[in-house]
């Protein structure tokens, strides 16, 4: 089964990356010639730079994939039930045993829970089985040449070239996701260059062939992104009917002691009053509810989709023994077309919804909550037809 996630972009490592003088668009041969000089300026020899770029081409399938990320328009319930299959749960349990000593070492050295690593490993590539078929070098060059996000992909081209120069990347044979992620946990070249770990001790960082390298590198990347060692990330809770819904959402964290005082109780486990968390309602006040701890926020540096991050975090809790979430009876959500209309209306009111794309992402949810509050509606950040009509 083809993984649904190998193509969703990791953007954590390039926020401050400089633009390449190679620019974007225009003649591809000229683009490569300029890039050859830049690679030499980055420390590659003339022969290395030319060998890295030899035979490079634009891949039209990459551009097509870049413009069609429809899976992230599903709601949390549909998305989670689609991707957290019995097979993935069983394989995750099997790998937890098989990789037990490795996962224990990772937890001791990096403080990243095995459930989180197993969840990303499973969702990204079905535990290494589906790593992508796009030629990574050409995918990165295609997206760097394309003028939509060159500032994101040009640094990844440079990083891939440096991996090639040290013997950890083959420009002709390395394949992965359309957006350039490589290996069993789908990391971008710059993340591999900066956070890759030789977990099996063979002298190379091989995220494609070595589970030890992949899982250890993922843990190191999460720590680099701000993961708090040995701390929780997500916990399902039951909420009182009279909770102030405007206090929910990722932008409204509070001490656990305050949530307990407001009547929030865990469905499984206990709550630590020394911690802080936000209450998130992926499908509104009538659907499942979770406490999102600071480590949950770190996962947005791995992937920007609210639905993906919530699903991965929940999957990680399932792999560590949590029960199936209580689905509740949420109000029907909006279609892609309706969400685009909603985003346009919210934007016209001065709200920041990000891109008008029909995806109910984090910014759109916050804008929905603001509009609900202004209109005197329960401010649970879940848009309905009723809210759309009011707007």
Automatic annotation (TrEMBL):
Residues 337-380 form the Peptidoglycan binding-like domain. InterPro entries: Lysozyme-like_dom_sf, MltB-like, MltB_2, Peptidoglycan-bd-like, PGBD-like_sf, PGBDSf, SLT_2. Residues 1-21 form the signal peptide. The keyword Signal applies. PROSITE patterns: PROKAR_LIPOPROTEIN. Residues 28-316 form the Transglycosylase SLT domain. Keywords: Signal. PANTHER family: LYTIC MUREIN TRANSGLYCOSYLASE, MEMBRANE-BOUND LYTIC MUREIN TRANSGLYCOSYLASE B. This is Lytic murein transglycosylase.
């Amino acid at each position: 089964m083809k993984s649904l996630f190998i193509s969703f972009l990791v953007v954590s490592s390039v926020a401050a990356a400089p633009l390449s003088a190679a620019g974007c668009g225009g003649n591809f041969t000229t683009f490569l010639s300029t890039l050859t000089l830049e690679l030499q300026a980055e420390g590659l020899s003339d022969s290395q730079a030319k060998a890295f770029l030899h035979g490079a081409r634009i891949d039209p399938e990459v551009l097509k994939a870049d413009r069609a990320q429809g899976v992230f328009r599903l709601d949390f319930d549909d998305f989670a039930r689609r991707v957290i299959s019995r097979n993935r749960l069983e394989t995750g349990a099997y790998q937890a045993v098989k990789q037990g000593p490795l996962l224990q070492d990772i937890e001791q050295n990096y403080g990243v829970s095995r459930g989180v690593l197993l969840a990303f490993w499973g969702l990204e590539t079905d535990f290494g089985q589906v790593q992508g078929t796009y030629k990574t070098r050409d995918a990165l060059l295609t997206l760097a040449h394309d003028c939509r996000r060159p500032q994101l992909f040009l640094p990844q081209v440079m990083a891939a070239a440096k991996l090639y120069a040290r013997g950890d990347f083959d420009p002709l044979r390395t394949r992965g996701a359309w957006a350039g992620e490589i290996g069993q946990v789908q990391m971008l070249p710059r993340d591999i260059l900066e956070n890759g770990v030789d977990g099996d001790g063979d002298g190379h960082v091989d995220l494609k062939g070595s589970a030890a390298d992949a899982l250890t590198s993922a843990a190191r990347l999460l720590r680099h992104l701000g993961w708090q060692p040995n701390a929780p990330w997500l916990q399902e809770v039951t909420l009182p009917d009279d909770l102030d819904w405007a206090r929910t959402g990722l932008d409204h964290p509070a001490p656990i002691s305050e949530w307990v005082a407001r009547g929030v109780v865990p469905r499984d486990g206990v709550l630590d009053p020394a911690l802080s968390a936000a209450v998130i309602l992926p499908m509104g006040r009538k659907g499942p509810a979770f406490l999102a701890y600071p480590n949950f926020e770190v996962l947005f540096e791995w992937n920007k989709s609210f639905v993906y991050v919530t699903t991965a975090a929940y999957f990680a809790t399932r792999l560590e023994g949590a029960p199936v979430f209580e689905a509740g009876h949420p109000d029907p959500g909006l279609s892609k077309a309706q969400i685009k209309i909603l985003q346009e209306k919210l934007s016209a009111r001065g709200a920041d919804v990000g891109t008008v794309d029909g995806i109910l992402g984090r910014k759109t949810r916050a804008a929905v909550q603001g509009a609900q509050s202004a209109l005197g509606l329960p401010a649970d950040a879940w848009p309905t037809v009723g809210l759309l009509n009011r707007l």
